Amino acid sequence: MIDLDSREDRIEGVKGIMARMMEQTKTLQALVPEYNWTGNPLGDLGELLAIEHYSLKKAPIGTTAFDATTSDGKTVSIKANQHSKQIGIRKYANKPKADVLLVIHVNQDVTWDEVYHGDLDIVIPECNWSEADTKYTIGITKLKKIQEAKKKQEEIEDE
What is the tens place of the pLDDT at every residue in 6-38? Predict the structure, then answer.
């Protein structure tokens, strides 16, 4: 049993957990080698789930401005969120931005929900700009409101 008051026990416990996580990372890399699984595993998971669910084509490794393409050639930026109340959208100098933004919320049990799926151009004016981080940020709540407004507009147009 780990004594949480013992510094040595806590360190050994963390080392044991990290060793298992590193082993699991190797397994993920063997199972789905087109993803990295080390720098941002939640991002890799989000991309995998979204690409498979929406039948997207994964962008080549090293592509920075987007993560996938649609069957009609639109570029898609995929963002996965779990605990954060906002997402960041990078701005790359001299590179085209994505056409579509797809944001999913990944639950603890790895089920997921769509937060936003639509034109990136609709979202950017609603974002805050961070010069220091060279990225736009937008709250998940605001994204959900934009998605709801978009759905309502589509329903009106379909009538």
Answer: 888 889 999 999 999 999 999 999 999 998 888
Find the length of the chain. Answer: 159
Q: CA angle 74-69-93, nearest 5°?
A: 75
**49, two tokens:** 């789930």
Q: What angle do CA 43, 21, 29 make, to 5 degrees?
A: 60
Q: Which two tokens stand for residue 152?
A: 């309502």
Task: Write out the DSSP string of 81-99.
Answer: ESS-SEEEEE--TTSPPPS
The pLDDT tens digits for 110-144 are 999 999 999 999 999 999 998 888 889 999 999 99
Cα gap 112→74, rounded to integer Å: 23
**DSSP 8-state code for residue 64:** -
Angle between helices 41-53 and 7-31 (to 10 degrees): 30
Domain boundaries, the chain: 1-31, 45-158
Nearest CA among 128, 124, 130 for reference residue 146 = 124
Tokens of 46: 């989000």
Reading the block at residue 102, the tokens are: 């797809």
Quote the percentage of the chain above a pLDDT of 90: 69
